[in-house]
Amino acid sequence: MTDDLTLPGHDGARTIWVFTADLDPAAFKAFARPGETWPLAEALGLAGLSPASVETFLTSDLEDYGLERYLTEAHGMDPASVAPDAARLAALDGPVVLLFSRDLPEGADRIDPDLPLAFIGRYAAPYSLAPAAPHLPSDSTRGHLAGPAGPVSDSRSIQRLLLITLGALIALALLVLVLA
User: What b/e sequence results for 107-130 when a residue is b if at least 16 CB atoms lie within 10 Å of its CB, and e otherwise?
Assistant: First the structure.
């Protein structure tokens, strides 16, 4: 069995690690901002970390939604994976760091968090090996597109209607000029 801070191989499974940061909001903003040096990547022990692999926010940003619900509904993590830590996630206050398994540095095999980070939990997306249903061939997949269904409108009848309307408007305009 792997421990919670071991990085998975490239098996396509999605995982999120949750950390808190013992920093005030202003210091956290500077800590989480990538630059020449990136304190967040250093604190995770992941040199070369892509900013796309990380999401940072304050728990107050999710107070109406909740972190447990955010992990399961917004990020698709398995509710069975998140549920055991529901009370712990609800009690968090302050800065939060989500580390995603996508785009992790090549060759990294473990997260080694250092202060001010504290590890909260590792959560996985449901993993299914069910094959996708095959696509049935159709004319459109072979490059043949059918025309529109139903009767084709007669453009001559539309033209005739427009000419009659135009003639009536001209006659009305002439009548107004004669009577004025």
Answer: eeeebebeebbebbbbbbbeeeee
Cα angle 69, 63, 28; round to 5: 105
- Evaluate if residue 2 carries a pLDDT over 50: no
* pTM as predicted: 0.66
Q: Which string of DSSP letters, residue by residue, matches 13-43?
A: --EEEEEEE-S-HHHHHHHH--SSS-HHHHH
- ∠19-22-23 over CA atoms, to 5°? 120
Do residues 105 and 48 make contact, with C-beta atoms less than 8 angstroms apart?
A: yes
| E strands present in the chain | 15-21, 54-58, 95-100, 117-124
**15-21: strand order across its sheet:** 54-58, 95-100, 15-21, 117-124
CB 77 within 8 A of CB 125: yes
Residue spans of the domains in the chain: they are 15-124
